[in-house]
Structures
1.
Amino acid sequence: MAVIQDVHGHDHGHDHPTGIMRWLTTTNHKDIGTMYLCFSLAMLFVGGFLAMGIRAELFMPGIQILEPEVFNSFTTLHGLIMVFGAVMPAWVGFANWQIPLMIGAPDMAFARLNNWSFWLLPVAALLLITSFFVPGGAAAGGWTFYPPLSTQGGMGTDMMLFAVHILGMSSIMGSINIITTILNMRAPGMTLMKMPMFVWTWLITAYLLVLVMPVLAGAVTMVLTDRNFGTSFFNAAGGGDPVMFQHIFWFFGHPEVYIMILPAFGVISEIIPTFSRKPLFGYSSMVYATASIALLSCFVWAHHMFTAGMPVVGQLFFQYATMLIAVPTGVKVFNWTATMWRGAMTFEVPMLFSIGFIFLFVIGGFSGVVCAIVPIDIQVQDTYYVIAHFHYVLVSGALFALFAGAYYWLPKWTGHMYDETLGKWHFWLSMIFFNVAFFVQHFLGLAGMPRRIPDYALQFADFNMISSIGAFGFGLTQLLFAYIVIKCVKGGEKAADKTWEGATTLEWTHLPSPAPYHSFEHPPVVK
Amino acid sequence: MKQDVTKTNIDVLKKLLIFSVFMFGFGYALVPLYKKFCEVTGIYELERPDSLARNTEIDSTRVIDLLLDANIRGLSWKFRPLQNSVQIHPGKLTEVMYEISNESDNLEVGQAIPSYTPKNLERYLKKIECFCFTKQELQGKEVKQLSVRFLIDPEVPADIHAATISYTFFKVKTD
């Protein structure tokens, strides 16, 4: 197929302000996408620094580097920054860049709203980071900020709660924008069931976001008014119920983990067919599987609370509902495997990260099923087993998919090829160090090492040292990623318009590399 | 054409905004909803066992021999019960007295920590008033009498015939 060069908008490409004002005032989806991605990469390193602090303290038994209060702040802010500052904005960045390109739209539906959604983020990040330096220190009650700890902490906790509010607002606006763009601005001929999988997963994710983010905003507001205005939603002394917070939080929190992983499923569903040179196996079943995962995710929240006090009926309901999610997830994994089956596969870096994703995400999925079983969960609740489980689905899940997507689309974004050799180094080092860091945590958890504690009993010493070495290696490896990205932005081999032989979506078949500042001002026709 | 897209976009925006506001309200509505749900289905006792009405009638058929013990750690005090043991019926409100005296010339602060045998006695021992609830301050050479008012729940297992309540005063550091 011939590449149609979309140059109609090129003349307008230079009428935007330059320098800092370009970025402050931009309404261009590509600029905003770039800012989202840079922001989340920066936050990955902030959250990563906190993780290094945690692992350094846990390198040996005893207290060496961090006082227990500071350690608690580190674990709390590590979680919050990675979830709300790194993974979620990164996916919104991908959505900004890719959704208009993949559906043949000229830009996002609400360009100014888009600008605002982004510029809220640095404000929230600043609140989170500076909270370390206020009297009393940063919030230290865990990223889930359960009362009574979150209704007791100092000013740092207020700053954290306010930051979560801002981040939630940004997410809601972002997802409203994404839904509207996908529903109204698809190129003629692109029916819903012809949309690329990445667009589908983001549409469902955006609906989940508008469904549950406001509920989190409600919970945060209740904690804030409990702290500052004398209400007693969660204060037992005033007739409130602290366990109620956990129910409301996890009503948001469980769909939240699918908000982080569904776009990853989308990216993997783009990359696997490209490098297998076959269409995605079972496209419609993928769509329905994604929708059922999203739907089920709203009925499993209390599996985070099996030990918080619940009747057996409740435990059984949430146990079976949780295990049911393994079915649509299994459909996805089998579809990816079937796509690769007898495909003409090549193993460029995006494909390596995608296969690594499938392999490690399945391990995380299995330990998730283990945790769903009530009697086992009561044993492993709040231990390193749970830590290992959710890092397998969030680091080797969401983060690996982000890397895969970044390598896949960098040639389209920058017009240059990334360094394939360094990319392979990045993948293999990440793969090895990730498993060194987190696999042993399964054993620590099963042996009973509790999470969120700066010290541990002597019998845990060896595995903790191994885990810390893996974590340091993994952290350092990500500096290599930053280097590869910068190198690719600055120059490199010119990327072909259709960089990947097997790619079929609009951004590869209809646009040059790099994608022009204004694209698809005249929508392409999809047959 | 372009105008139409903008208008339909605004329509979707309005719907989604209203939906977000509705979900914000739903977050608040969850508070009464959860309570109502538990009440209707009866799957969760909202009242804690402690606050439920219970039979507290005095069981005069049983007698429990209660030994009183007193210890000191790190303080120059003397601490003793005014009676070595009491015999009580389960359910009967009882008061026992202790005496502490400061042997030194300086102000000292202590806190009493209780300990019970048999160890499951704690579940049945209901203390209404105890000197162990607060810190105790004694000036040099001061003597004080302290009381504990308590009852033993009539549901205490039938094989408990004797029990010991022991208090130990620990020194509290003062700045």
Note: Residues 1-43 of chain B form one domain.
2.
Amino acid sequence: MLDTALFYIFAALTLGGGVLTITRRSAVHSAIWLITSLLGVAGLYLLQRAEFLAGVQVILYVGGIMVLFLFVIMLVNLDQAAKEKRFSGQKWIALACVAAVALQALWFVSKGAGRFTLGQPSIAGENLGNSEHVSRVLFSQYLLPFELASILLLVAIIGAVVMAKKRI
Amino acid sequence: MHPITTVHYLFLSAALLLVGTIGVLTRRNIVVILMSIELILNAVNINLIAFSRQLGNVNGQVFAIFVITDAAAEAAVGLGILIALFRNKETVNADEVDILKW
């Protein structure tokens, strides 16, 4: 019961924050609403027993990436952009996307949830989501992707520094 | 009230992905377009976590960590490109950057 209520609260935070992110005129307001949305997603992770990821979401997304966004909004002069029109003329493609997803959802609802099987749980994962369990898998089974991710971050650092130089 | 199942999370994820897609397609401000991409990546993460819970193993959570890493790298490079663009073209609107068009 409490889980159900919390799910709907966090889902409303996530979706409402997302919608307000893409509709606000000022980029700073968009960033604030995106933070709301990301915190809602962190709450959903907690509901799904992914505590480590909830912490990573708050620290890395809200604490890292969003600060980066706000910093760039500060560097880039957006006062003039806030006065211009917000949307470009691609609304028909966007409407097509909405129609496609709505059709899929309607199809799913009309078939009924019983017609679709989602796969059975392999093991009972009661202590699932604690950082020990995640780190065991991350540092044994996914060691090579982990190292590749570090290379990706190195490339991103170099790319960001080169892009932000005075003369390219 | 029904209990919350994986399907609820899938619908939420689809809706969030849709919101992000609309943002990428319709907004002109490149900063907001990058924020919409973050929304899309979060939708993918919700999906991964829901199936991780459903199947009872942590592989989905490990993938979600990689997705967050990619999001950080993408944001850093994207905002770096944005600063370089603003320095050269004095605009942050995606439809005014059309020097590759002919």
Note: Residues 6-93 of chain B form a domain with the Helix Hairpins fold (CATH 1.10.287.3510).
